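User: Hi! I'm working on a homework problem where we have to compare a predicted structure to a textbook description. Could you give me the structure for the chain below?
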Amino acid sequence: MKLGVLGGTFDPVHMGHLILAEEACYQLALTRVLWVLTPDPPHKTGKTVLGWQDRWRMLNLALAGNDAFELCDVDTRRAPPYYAVDTMGILKKKYPSDQLLYLIGGDSLRDLPSWHNPEELIAVCDGLGVMMRAEVPIDTQRLEMSIPGIQKKLLLVSARPVDISSTSIRSRIANGQPYRYLLHSAIYEYIRDNQLYLAK
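Assistant: Happy to help. Predicted structure tokens:
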């Protein structure tokens, strides 16, 4: 099988995530996309993040009915810290005969040299599926100098930019602005019914 691994905080998961994941699945001919929820992201230390259980329930609702999307508990079943290199190492042992492609945005690819142990992450991945955005140019030669071997692992996914972010959604909710159609209907209802992200 050819599996894509999409990790994130998903606070909350929104239509942009779903659209880009579907596009990556199509363009890279993936068997499935494994969605990996990060309970306590190391790069967001000190920031307020909704409890992972609510984020897990919303992801479960968003992925329901799509056989190509699977909610993966690799990080929610283990202790922190939650680094991508460790997550991919565990998944490689779980799926030893399958191809594992780590799905990443262009902005994250640009910042990859600052990640925890990026050389080992590249080594353990069979490929990096990069969802490119025109406004985030990537200097692949400079990346290659920082992380040797990365260029041959890059698989570019061209997708229309989806100008939706979890940050803007949380802000809109807190400020009483409309946000309904930025989210899967089940996620909108979950947030509304549980009164999440309201201003304190």
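For your comparison, note the following. Helices lie at 15-27, 52-63, 84-94, 106-111, 118-124, 140-146, 166-174, 185-194. Residues 8 and 91 are 16 Å apart (CA to CA). Good luck with the assignment!
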